[in-house]
């Protein structure tokens, strides 16, 4: 069945079955854009449409597939092959009763896609009397290779963006270290007074450690909030055909905040330890 080769998820009703083809039933399944165009605001399944003077019953509708405003696939409609041959014969093909213009096939396994491609080419060349090895004999689209190429592009983008993220986290950590070292230098007398009153090294270290982590989490929250606001604004702006507005993914945002927290914790260790190691006498007499 065609819907097992291509991704065509049913939204309402059903897909075509063997009896539809055997009895040449005038039934049709509508793509999402075709459904919205023909049956805006009313149910499609069970209704009829007129095609080439023949009434077709709508037995199912499909979910929207693809992204953005590209509606080519969503405008497509599907009927039994036998029905199409009877009512929509191809033109300029002679008297042959079983002419087709395109073949879509799926190998049993991904590893066999090249072998399946060669076999299809061999069968077509044998049936039509030409050499299957002629480069210009076929106009093909290998979706497996396309998926692999797109996957490599996204892998490269992920690696690049990941490296940019790591560098950004490193720079942020350096910034936190500098801020906390300045804070330690400015609050030397406070640290000395606390230690003279009995504060332990652990309590001093914990104080500055928490401050560093808080600064990191606060900056992360501000950044996430600004990104969410920007995406909310862009969601109402048309970015052109084929482009979806960016969306804030909760899981990604949480991962970013956790990464910032880890960076803040690591960055706060050295300034906190330096503050804890100050001697009370030296800290109190320093101006």
How would you sum up this structure, described in words?
With 287 residues, the protein is of the alpha+beta class. The chain is 55% helix and 8% strand. It folds into three domains: 100 residues, no CATH class; 39 residues, no CATH class; 142 residues, no CATH class. It contains ten helices and five strands, in the order αβαβαβββααααααα. Strands 1, 2, 3, 4 and 5 form a five-stranded mixed sheet that branches. A hairpin with a 2-residue loop joins strand 3 and strand 4. The mean pLDDT is 80.
Shape: elongated
* Helix-strand pattern: HEHEHEEEHHHHHHH
Rg calculated over all Cα atoms: 33 Å
Overall average residue pLDDT: 80
Q: Which percent range fits the helix content?
A: 55-70%
Oligomer: single chain
How many beta-strand elements? 5
Largest sheet: 5 strands, mixed
Report the sheet-strand fraction.
5-15%
pLDDT below 50 for ≥5 consecutive residues: which ranges? none
Cα-to-Cα separation, first versus last residue: 84 Å
Secondary-structure class = alpha+beta
Number of helices: 10
The count of domains is 3
